[in-house]
Design a protein that fits this description.
2 domains; 8 helices; Rossmann fold; single chain; 20% strand; alpha/beta; 220 residues; elongated; 7 strands
Amino acid sequence: MIISAAKERTRRAALLQDYRSVFLVGCGACATACKVGGEEEIFATQEWLEELGHDVTGSAILDEACHIMRAAREVRRFRDQIAEADVLLVLACGAGAQSISECSDKPVLTGVDPLFLGNVRRFGQYEEKCSLCGDCILNETGGICPVTTCAKGLLNGPCGGMDDGCCEVDPERECAWVRIAKRLEDLQQGVFSRVVEPKDWSRKFKPGQHSIERTPGSRK
C-alpha cells in the first residue's frame, strides 16, 4: 500500500490561491486507508475550501486512482462538473494524480505527499518493508529485506557501528542483520555464504513498466 500524508492546509491554500473553482478527487484504496483521501477527507476538504471562498464544483472517489482506464472513465462521467472547475485537487498518491492528469486537460494538483510503500501493522500504523529494488534476496535473508530495513541498506551483514544488537543510526532499533540472523537461526538455516554483489539498480527500470501475460481462459 502506498502510504501518504496530507499536505498542510497552508500549503494547499497556497497551491490553490490562483484558482476560483475546484473539483475534488479521492481514492478508495490506499488514500482512504491512510485517511487522506476518502469520503470523510473529501467532505472536510470541501467545507474548508468553501470557507476560503472557493467554489467546489463536485467530487469523485475512484476505486483505485492509479488505474488509468478507470480514471479516464470517471473523468468522462463527471466531465460537466470538471468542465466548470479551474483545477482538479487530487487527494491520492502521485500515481493517482498522474492518472487524472493524463485523462484531463485541466490543471491537476495533489493535496497529499506520498511517503513509501508500506505494510499495515494495524490501523494507522505502517512500516516500510520493500524498496521495489527489482532484485529480491528475501529467499536468502529469512524474509527480512536488508535493502529497506537496514538504515544503510547493507547486503552482507551488519556494519562496524552495530552495538549490542542495535542499529548505529538509530540505537532504539534492533539491527536489521541481527534480526535476519535470528530469523535464519529459528528456521534452522545458515546465513548465506556467498558475497552479495552491489545492488544492480539497472534492474529497477525507470519509468517501470511491466506486462503480465494472461494464460488461456484467464479473465480479462
